[in-house]
Amino acid sequence: MLRSMKYDIRAIRSVLIVIAGLFLASNGNAQTIASFIREAAVENGFLPAVDTHRQTNLQLAGLGQRFFESKFLSLNGNIACVDCHLDKLSSADGIANAIGVGGVSSGQDRVTAGGAIVPRNTLPMWGVGGIGYERFFWDGKVDGSSGNEIISQFGDEAPTTDALEVAVHLPVVEIREMLQEDIFVHSAKKESVESADRVYKAILDNLHVNEADAVEGLSNYLQIPLREITYQDVASAIAEFIRTKFALQETKFHNFVFNDGQLSDSEMLGARIFYGKGKCAVCHSGPYLTDFEFHTIAYPQRGFGKNGFGVDYGRFNVTHKPDDLYKFRTPPLFNIVATSPYGHSGSIDSIATAIVGHFDPLRIFNSAEATNFERAEYYKVMLAASEDLLKIAFLSDNEVESVIAFLGSLSFEPSFPSENEARRLNR
Amino acid sequence: MSILAKANIMVLAVVILGAAIFLARPSIATYLWGAKYKTAMFQCDNVMREHLVAKTAMEASPGVDSLKNLKAAELGLVDCHGYDKLRKKLIAWGLDSNDLSMLGLEALEEESYELQRYVEVHEIRY
């Protein structure tokens, strides 16, 4: 009996040792994997959030907020930047195609209420204008990444040497987005810098009347006479606000990479896939998790598209290079879980579908509901995507879920002072 | 009623009817050929886009295949002839450039209705 008990104790002890050994081994393995992921993240250009911050001035940013939130920034469309970059929707608008002039309310109500459709999905603002963030819009139509010149619709007459400030010049002169076509706009519609200048001047006159204290605040801040303020100064303030409010903040993943913080098992597996077999980091690299390059992901088109009739040629519209057909700028991934729908036309409802669409486009395309023309267009999109499709690995549904968990670790809240505080800073 | 009075009434009726038809011509034309015009515009737009892509492809990588592609795309532009003819017909029926722009815009944005349909059947995530 005693002998038998002795064997039992030995057996239990052995099992416990094996379990402890397995635990230690797996823990060691997890540590090794964690260090591999940290290494991979850094190798792929991931930086502490603070390293992406430009030095900004809160007073100027506060003034910029006033203009960002003012409907008078729109000459005749009664729409503000903030109408499509909503706090409650993580700086996006939660709808597939943006609704510009004539838009009211938000979300579903905004779509059903009508208004002019801007045929692209609103891009979230996180990180915009930080250090190294020099390409703007889905098709990169404003590009300061060369460091020498800014490529934009202004040609060699860019109003400023700051790419974000140039980008801030565009929505207000974009018909449907923030400008409604009336007799004045029709007369100025010549796609020339001079005609755009007439509109900027008219916008500024509008602000002088309706946002007089903000313009005066800008005049005081810049220490120039009120009448010498230009739209460029307003754009500069808005850019300062964007850089300040939407600056990247430390996330759980930053903490993991740079402070030996922890990720959950699922997040860890997701990170392993992201930097490993999923090859996500080939394009989603750098401090903003984008290479700022142009790629095709075979997402179906929703809405009439930039080229009309349900077609959007993407980057091609900027470069006129056939290789750029259907290509769009890789989107950054911070706060991505809160900014659905996805894709340049917002045709992707969920983040799981967005991931699956990278490697299995047929699964996300509803062929039965598509028109013959939509199907024909989609083949072309798939063909354009094929170059990248060759590289992207298949992921199981569980793996996709893990990647989503990892992407959740890239979330943060903005640290910009509250509206009241900003108002106080303006005084 | 005298014959002269009857004749006057008839002439007046014809004039009123003629004036009504004249004024209603754009609406009648839109009713009769509006849909056809939108289709023609879609087809013309399509071949023009294809032509632009073929032209840029020829510039980017000149060669026999690119040239054949471009020539085919040029021939494809014949589709725009039907569109042009219909456009002139509509102008003759009294539509002005604003009316035609509006029809064109409706055609161009036809897919926007799909957006509203989408909203009705899918919940937008917040």
Task: Please specify the SSE layout and strand pairing.
The complex is a heterodimer of chains A (427) and B (126).
Chain A: H1 2-43, H2 58-68, E1 98-99, H3 107-112, E2 117-118, E3 135-136, E4 142-143, H4 163-169, H5 183-188, H6 193-210, H7 212-222, H8 231-245, H9 252-259, H10 265-275, E5 294-295, H11 316-319, E6 328-329, H12 351-359, H13 361-364, H14 372-389, H15 397-408, H16 419-426
Chain B: H1 3-60, H2 64-76, H3 79-92, H4 97-108, H5 112-121
Describe the structure.
The complex is a heterodimer of chains A (427) and B (126). In chain A, 44% of the residues lie in helices and 3% in strands. Chain A has 16 helices and six strands. Chain A has a two-stranded antiparallel sheet. Chain A has 427 residues and is mainly alpha-helical. Chain A starts with a helix and ends with a helix. In chain A, helix 1 packs across helix 10 (265-275), helix 6 (193-210) crosses helix 7 and helix 12 packs across helix 15 (397-408). By secondary structure, chain B is mostly helical. Chain B is built from five helices and no strands. The longest helix of chain B has 58 residues, at 3-60. Chain B is rod-shaped. Chain B starts with a helix and ends in a 5-residue tail after the last helix. The model of chain B is unreliable at 120-126 (pLDDT under 50). Classes of the chains: A mainly alpha (427), B mainly alpha (126). At the A-B interface, helix 3 of A face helix 1 and helix 5 of B.
